[in-house]
User: Fold Cysteine hydrolase from Pseudomonas mercuritolerans.
Amino acid sequence: MKRCVVVVDLQNEYLPDGKLPLNNIVAAVGNARKVISHAREADIPVFHIRHESDDDGIPIFVKGSNGAQIQPAVAPVGDEPVIVKAHINAFRETDLKQQLEASEIQELVVIGAMSHMCIDAVVRAAADMGYSVILLHDACATLDLTSGGVNVPSAHVHATMMAALEFGYATVKSVDEYLSA
Assistant:
């Protein structure tokens, strides 16, 4: 089964000095870097996803801004494709599916941000399209949320998303489990 790594939205905006800092982003990026390095050494294709906003009313991921750039620690090299998206789901109105098909990919290893948004969307969409998905939980990050007056710590948001996705959409592993397999 031909595999690729999909690096979702590991952009400067999510760093501690960005406009939307995520909890545990530094550790997640460190783990993502290990996965990307392994993929490059093993000739596993790496696809980078980058979110950009053209809407002047949205102050994050503004096209051309530093915040919209992929973090240097996980930046593409050589001819690794970068799919630019304007929506939460990386498959929506992009050529991601066509690029995966052209490379005869059958299995996606997903890493990146945010666990409860873009990771959730791309994992569910990929599984619904028939791809096998491995989700590396410690190479993903998110933030605290509030809903209906209930504050939900990022660790709970993240764990809930991983549990939900593992239930029927992906095999969820740690980076160490993945790299040692």
